[in-house]
């Protein structure tokens, strides 16, 4: 007969405890928050949840890792609601409260790339950023779209070596600059994935390896990216690869605690309503990892 005293139920439910012990209006403190691919200005953006997340999670530094606003250039299908304004309000409130907010534009908000180096309403714009974790690791913070044009060829490029790889990076930029001048959108990753669903897993893997390779080549301990809407923390070839996911489907953020541990939070409706702690979907990035 089952003895309920011996069997903790539900098993491994760390979050239930946290939800009960927290007041519904508790604010979580993090050292750093990374979010990207919010796609404000589109119907797909989960702006209500995002505004809720921002107002219940504080940090010293907030990185906006690209594709934050969508459709500044192509105005058709522009969509805006009060919840989208609430997201901007929440970000600007953080600026007022002393949070350092760094905006690294992506391909959907590339119009802001022209303003990199300046500060807009207290938000610092950068083509890419360098983040130093509490435990001294240097992370390259970059949206990642520069790499998606080459990852389909990553396998044979790997055989050709660094020169061909660097050349492919440049060609992808040239290719997309030409598309932009012709009024065409950035070469679409999602359209590509829809055509090649069977290869989506290897596409993601190639993207991750391309980013890790770039970080390693430039002497960083790791990289934080977005763009592919696939949250992840892992070690690739001795380099920490993090992707903060998106706010169109998964509603995820990458957060760093005071000790420099990084993990992904998924801000579900349930988390927002019950505990505002978020649901941790990844263990802290490689506790065994020691900075070089
Ligand atoms: Mn993107």
Q: What's the structural blueprint in terms of helices and strands?
A:
Layout: H1 14-21, E1 28-35, H2 47-55, E2 57-64, H3 82-96, E3 100-103, E4 119-120, E5 123-125, E6 129-132, E7 138-141, H4 154-160, H5 162-181, H6 189-195, H7 200-217, E8 222-225, E9 232-236, E10 239-243, E11 252-256, E12 262-266, H8 269-275, E13 279-280
Bound molecules: manganese (II) ion.
Gross geometry: globular
Cα-to-Cα separation, first versus last residue: 53 Å
Helical fraction equals 25-40%
Number of domains: 1
* Tally of contiguous helical segments: 8
- Determine and state the CATH class: Alpha Beta
Structural class: alpha/beta
Radius of gyration (Å): 20 Å
| Bound ions, cofactors and other small molecules, one mention each | manganese (II) ion
Mean pLDDT, nearest integer? Answer: 80
Strand portion, in percent?
15-25%
Going across the major beta sheet, what is the strand order? Answer: 4-5-3-2-1-11-12-13
